[in-house]
Every structure is written in C-alpha cells, then in structure tokens.
Amino acid sequence: DRDVTGVQTCALPIYLNRIRALDAELPDDLESDRVRAMAPALLLGVLWRTGADLDELRKLFDDSVAAATRARDDPLLAQIQVAFSICLMGAGGHCEEAAARASDAARTAQRCGDPGLIALVQGMCCYTYAESRPVSEVLESAEAVLELTLNDPDLNFGVMLESPRGQASLWHYVALALLGRSSEALTEMEQADQFIRGRGLRENLSHSA
C-alpha cells in the first residue's frame, strides 16, 4: 500500500464495492474465507485517505478478522491487525486504539513464528507506539527488529514496509534521543543513514529527512 498513487486512491471506494459484491458470490469454505479476509486487508491501510467513515472501516476490519479466523490464517490476521492500526492513526488519530491493534498483531505474528512477519509487525509497532506508549516501548520494538535482522538485514515479509530494519533503525535513534542517550543516538543515526542510503531505501530516507 505504500506505493498507491493519487489516481489509485480515488478508485479505492470502487474496489471496496467490488469486494462487497464478490462476497455474496463466494461459497462458504476456507479458501473463500481467505479471499474475504485478504481483499479488505489490502485496503484497510489506505482507505482512510479517501475520507471513509471510521465506523464503516471498523466493520470492514471486524469482517476481515472473522474471515481470517475462520480460515485459521494467522499470517493474514496479523496483516489485517497491523493495517487497521495504521488506518486508526490516519483516520482521526486514534492513537491508543492503534497501539492496541498493533500489539494484537505482534502477538499474532509471534504465534506464527515467521521472522519476516515478526519484523514487519514490530517495525510498524514503533510507529504506532510513538504516539501513545512510553518511549521505552518504542525502543524495545525497534531493538527487537534490529536483533531479528542482525544476520539478515534484508529480512522482510514483502508488504507494507520497504525495510523493517530501515524502519526500526530510524525509530531506534529517535527513542534513544528522547530518552536522553544523545551519544548513542548520534551513533545510531549515522549507522541508520549509512544502511538506508547504502541500500537505496527511498521510503525510509524520506522519513529520516
């Protein structure tokens, strides 16, 4: 969803209506429930840009979670939860609720045990926690990603984040600075810049500018 253009954003309500029309045509089985869960999940992180009603988005989230649960697809459930956490941040700044949904996603990802998914979710937790949780929790999430990606810096789940390690690197030095650990923050800032520029991570670079 990070690459959605303005024209594509305008078309999102049309996609949503097509998803709703498709739902009635699907049979009641596990594979159909995955489709019911996946299609809204792809939209939750960006629909707030269109001014969509938050109550409508909550229903979309609830329906998607129910479908992923029926399909017993925890990786998909984690993506839905973290996408909705971003939606809550964008649609009116519901920061505490966003952090709670991100924490749900982190628990789901841990249950799955997929390192790439865990890195993705923890990287997103840095962002949501920064608005409503103690800085120490931001630092803890960032350090969890940095440790997980230490031997595989390019570890990724392939959605939402260009680089979980790049995202965590940015929040790591921010958290250190806010905690008064300025010398460490400056060192980490330099290392983060080298990592991001060295890999040409434009999304992360734009956040650090």
What does this structure look like?
There is one protein chain. By secondary structure, this protein is an all-alpha fold. Helices cover 73% and strands 0% of the residues. It is built from 10 helices and no strands. The chain has helices at residues 6-23, 30-44, 54-70, 74-90, 95-112, 115-129, 135-148, 164-178, 182-198, 202-208. Helix 3 (54-70) runs antiparallel to helix 4 (74-90), helix 6 runs antiparallel to helix 7 and helix 7 (135-148) packs antiparallel against helix 8. It is elongated and about 60 Å long. The model is unreliable at 1-9 (pLDDT under 50).
- Rg over alpha carbons: 18 Å
End-to-end CA span: 21 Å
General form = elongated
Structural class: mainly alpha
Number of helical stretches of at least 4 residues: 10
* Overall pLDDT confidence: 84
Query: Helix content range of the residues, please?
Result: over 70%
Largest sheet features: none
- Please report the total strand number as a whole number: 0
**Unreliable parts:** 1-9
Question: What share of the residues does DSSP label as strand, in percent?
Answer: under 5%
Order of helices and strands: HHHHHHHHHH
In short:
With 209 residues, the chain is mainly α.
Which terms would index this structure?
single chain, 73% helix, disordered N terminus, mainly alpha, elongated, 209 residues
